[in-house]
Amino acid sequence: MPHSTFGLAWVGFAIAIPLHVADEATHDFLGVYNPNARAIRRRFHVPIPVFSLRGFIVALSSAVALLLILSPFAFQDAHWLRALAIPVAILVGIGNGCIHLGGSILYRRWMPGVLTAPLLLVAGSWLWWGACQ
Hints:
This protein is mainly alpha-helical.
């Protein structure tokens, strides 16, 4: 596989994330997420973060910036980045996409982020495939 294939998958994933964040932000994701995070914290004593809209946007913008900053290493086929890409692809791409789709099915309504969940699934799968080659 050419080295650029992993790089393209990495950059494609980095572009899919802000599209998904925009979908979540414009459909009141935090209105669904924060009450659930608080309930999980109370019941299970797990330190799940609660976000303001500004904090949510800053945190995810920083993550996307980091992905883009690391993209030259993806095009250079850095093995350490391939190892990092696998759990990121599975958790952030595939897992997150499945949670949005599954939540929409479970609650029988469109959950925030569901419109771009298929994009996350594709981008996460492509990144996982590219990292494993």
